[in-house]
Structure formats: structure tokens, C-alpha cells
Design goal:
The complex is a heterodimer. By secondary structure, chain A is an alpha/beta fold. Chain A contains 11 helices and 13 strands. In chain A, helix 3 crosses helix 4, helix 3 packs parallel to helix 5 and helix 9 packs across helix 10. In chain B, helix 4 packs across helix 9. Classes of the chains: A alpha/beta, B mainly alpha. Chains A and B meet through helix 1, helix 2, helix 3 and helix 4 of A and helix 1, helix 4 and helix 5 of B.
Chain lengths: ~300, ~290
Amino acid sequence: MPESLIPPVISARGVVKRYGRTVALAGLDADIGPGITGLLGSNGAGKTTFISLALGIRSRDGGTLEVLGHDPAVSGIQMRARIGYAPEHHDLPSELAATDLVRHLAEMHLLPHRAAVQRANDALWLVGLGEERFRPVGAMSTGQRQRVKLASAIAHDPELVLLDEPTDGLDPVQRTEMLDLIRRIGTEFGMHIVVSSHHLEEVERICDAVVIVEGGEVVHAGTLADVRRGPEGLVVEVDDRADELAEILTERGYEVTVDGATLRLGAAEGIHDAVRDAVADLGIGLRRLGPRGRTLEDVYLGAGK
Amino acid sequence: MSAEPGGARLFDLGYRSYEGARERPARAMATLAVFTARRVLGLGRGGRHKVLPAITLAIAYLPALVSVAFAVILEDLPVDDLISYGDYAFITGSALALFTALIAPEALCPDRRSGMLGLYLAGPLDRNRYLAAKGVAVFAVMLLITAGPLLFMFVAFTVAGHGPSAGESPGLLLRILASGGATALLYASLSMAVASFTTRRAAAAVATVLLLFVPVSVVRSAIESAGAPNALDLLSFPFVVADLSYRIFGETPDDASPVRELSTGLVAGGVAAAIAAGILVCWLRYRRLEAFR
């Protein structure tokens, strides 16, 4: 099916949410498609509020919202049975064994008892807690609790998984393992995943698409491929006399912007040869010459301005 | 998967997509109710969680066991010397209050404290269904102590052919269920209302005990010294429960409580109003509660 015809997993139009006088979401518009999508934004940007509206736990003050084809405010119960959710907080019933907690939540998501027992064990093995599954959650580390939450979110084989800051509190090694795990779940088992995070590199590493939220509004949305593609042209980095190089190229009719030792040039006929000649004429060292492109950081920082 | 020479195979499929049947959404309520009931009774938990429920249940059932034992062993013992059904709520009033103070706080408070409420509401439950499941669990466990001993006596006296009302009253079973059910419903709704105000079990337990016993002396003082209407005695819940039990079984207590002076209609209305108030307070609290963090 052409990408344009695939229905979005979550579709939001003008979604508004207020807490008293504070506007948490100010007319948020977003289409979240299949695959793994990063919900990126600083703390307080409205990510968790958006997740709570998508789950139908909170009611919105305006706009329309569809999740898996349902309005969460109308048919939340049917919709939530098909969703897995891992909250940001690490508080879980401390005395329950991990396997009991995951099984209980799988049963709460309408799995028959026997299937819930089996799948709780399978999910805990998948997240790397097979040997630890009978330990009380209260005796587990933050990293292990994050894995228990992930296992709880996927044990009932949901269509959509919402993960709120799944790497919060993890050390770099644990963070890498968790990201690999999320990527694997999204690609191997066909679940659509929305990962809320304020870490650019996490989203860039595992997501197919990104929705950047700031101040309760979407400031950028699209696939990571679109983000990286960016404007056409070249980026040139030299070790000295960048301003003189820019002047020469401008005189020759090319569009140039300078940022320290880095020049960004618009796409044009013969641009590669022109840069080579100008650098040779000036006798300076060329550190980098490549397609212009963008990083998620460029987009994120640009969106914040 | 590996093939053995004898034809046996080992399957290690691990996590995979689920193609099997799924339950109806109502099943989530039943799952939560059973889970909660087991939790408050300490089932499937460590030994320390079983101690208080076990002691309370033992206190509640002991008079019934003793009464049945006397009825079986001493067949010549006059029936009037055995504990009557109407007496039971009065005799076990303290155990009932203690049990009430344990159950609803254990059923409600930890979910809010541990964030489980948010996880439940992120599944196929809404706040009303969540509260209904919790209410059913608390009510069912309360029945263990309000109707359980009476049902035990009813069966034991009937089998022994000796004891109060044995084989005499065809409506006795209904009276037992009505008495036990009304008491369980009243105490469940009141204690759930109290527990909805705090995330701390101990605070909720203490507040429940205070709600049950403080009005007993306060109301009497208000009536006797300030001339307040006698209907205020309806706030003396232990007396109301005991008196309601006597009225349902058609018995006259040896020591009449002040509630005895009120009409049956007023007592029944007062109990219904207290149950409704408890449910309403709890519902309003949960409607406004921030469950998501």
C-alpha cells in the first residue's frame, strides 16, 4: 500500500488541553504513522499530556483525536485493550514478583489466565529478565524496573505501545540495551511504538519518524529520512580563512553562509569544482566536503528558535 | 528447535505474536476484583500480610464455632443459651470494625501510592469500572465476616438439628444474607470513602476506626446535653449495625441501644443514606483524582 494511503496510528487535529490557566497543549496537530515514532520535546513540552489524551485517561478541551481508528474519549475501553503502556515513573507494587505483575496486567488486558502466565514469562525472557522473573519488583534496580514496565506493555501483544521516557534513570550501557530492545520489538513483532523522550540521540537512533513538541505545539513532524535529507547543497569545513573562501565563492555567483570554519552552499552547477579551485587558490586545508543534509539536532534547535 | 533420535522435539519459541482468544472487557473487572480480594486477605503474599486478616477472621468465627460446638456436644442445652443470629453482629462488632479498617485501605491506597491506578486506567477499565471492581472485592471480603459465620451456624445447626431457629424458619437464609449484606455494604462504602482521601493505609485505617467509634460518644452527648434530635443516633454505626441485625432477625436485644427507639423505616433509610453517601464521596474523589503521572 502506498505510504500516503496507510492510515495513521494516531491522528490529532487542534488538540487542546488546559490545566486551569496553564495551556499544556495548544492546538496540537500530528499524524503518527506505523513503525517507531519518537515524541521529542523538553521537559514540560506536553509529551506526557499527549500520551494521557491518547490513552483516554484525561479528557481534552478541544480538537479531535483518533487512536487506532477510535476516539479515546468515546471508545477508550475497546481501544486501550489494544494498547500497551509503560509510564515514566518507576513506582510499582514492590512486593509483587515481576512475573506476577506482568501476568496480572496481561490479564487486565483481556488475555485468558493460562495465556497470560505463558506470555508474561515470554515477555520477561525477551527483555532479559528471565532468570530474575520471580524476584519482587521492589528488590530490582531502576534498569530492571524499566524492563519490567516494557514487558508489561508488550505481554498482551498490543498493536500500539506507548513508552514514556523508557530510558529514564538508566546508565549508558543499560540505555543502549533498552534502545536496542525497543527497536527489536518494533521491527520483529510488528508493533507500532511511540517513544517519548527528551534525548535527541535516542530518537535518532531507533525511530523511523519524529514528532517534535514544544510549548504544547508540534514544531516538526516527519520521517527521520526527511529530516536527514534536508536542503540540497554542500557543507565545507576548512582549517583557516573561511571568510575569504566565502567571499570568493559569492563573487563566483554561489549562495554561501558562514558559521565559523564551516560554509554551507546552496546546490548549483559546478559547485564541487568551484570549491576545489577556490581552496587551492587560497592554499588552505580542507577538512570536510560533503552533502549538506541535516541532523535531528539542527531541526530541534531550529524549531526552538 | 532440535530433533532427537527418538522423534521428540524441543521447542523454544520465545516471545511471539498472540493469535489466541481474548476475553471481553468485563473480564478486566472480574480479574481486578479477584486480585484485590486475594490481596486484602494476604493470599499469595508473604506471611506478615496474612496475620491480621487471619486474626480478625478467627475472632469473628470463634463465637460461631463455640456455639455450634455447644449445640452438638450438649444436646440438652436450651436454645436460648446459644448465640442467636441477631446477637452475632453485636458480639463481633469489634472484629468487624477492625476488619473494615483493614480492607478498604488495603484495596484502594496502594494503587494510588504505587502508580498502579494509572496502569489500570491505561487498560480496558475506566474509573467507574475500576471503583466497581474494588467495591465488589471489598464487599465480598466483608461478607466473609458479616454473613460467613451466620451461614456457618445456619448449616451447622440445621445438620445438627439443634440450635436457634434450626429448621423452623424458611426465610432465615434470606435474613442472614440481608443482614450480612446490609452490614457489608454499609461498612464497605464508608471505609472506601475514607480510603479515597489518602494514599497511606495506616492513616486510612485509623480514620475508619475514628469514623466508626467517635460519633458514638459525640452523638450521645449532643442528644443528651444539647437536645439534638434522636435521629443523630444513626451516625453511631456500630449500634446501627447491631440494631439492624436484631430487627432483621425479629429479635429483641437484652440491652437495647439508643437506636432501638428509632422506627425501622428511619433506621433502614439512615443505612441506605449512609451507603449512598459513602459511594458518592468515593466516586467524586476518584472522578477528580489525578491518576496519571
